[in-house]
Amino acid sequence: MIFIGKYNKSVILTYVGITLAVCGVIFSFLGCISKAMICLIFSGICDLFDGKIARSCKRDDKEKEFGKQIDSLADVFLFLGLPCALGTILLKDLPWYFYIVLVVYVISGVIRLAWFNILASSKEPVKYFIGMPVAYIALVLPILYSIELIFNLKLSLLYSFIYLLFAILFILNIKISKPKGLWYIIFFILAIIVTIVIEIVG
User: Fold this and answer.
1) Where are the chain's structural domains?
2) pLDDT digits (tens, 9 = 90+) for 145-160
3) Distance of alpha carbon 46 from alpha carbon 79, whole angstroms
């Protein structure tokens, strides 16, 4: 093989999610916040279903381990990097020191992902999450943004609170049930509705 890594269908959705996140960061830097939010939403959708697709594929041990590693590394960019880039716009009406919240958010998220990797490496199946999954930001931020658009509000302070709340929940030692069955459909439908609202109103 010419290149290292794996490029089969078991990880393709993860690569799509990373691509969307890169586009989202670029849109953030360009000030196109609505487009960046939509990229965040669809990055979340990719993360929601990439595990299911991977488990449906026939994989050897190396492919399974690679899938775990790249999924976790992708989460750093999708749900920590992109939201941080968005935060530079969402918090722009606040004093400069509020940006410290973004630093705390990213550090807490990285700690949470590292801890999750330790738990995921055990042989026992994980029936629940310890701490809030970082991917949940991909739904909460766009929902707040759509509310801001619909009612023509300025929610900079609320965004700051949400980033700090998520930072705490990432590393809080609490059990959170893993979404199953119908929840995947609910999350997907809600994401599409929020996307349509942002596209129309934004």
Assistant:
1) 12-201
2) 999 999 999 999 999 9
3) 12
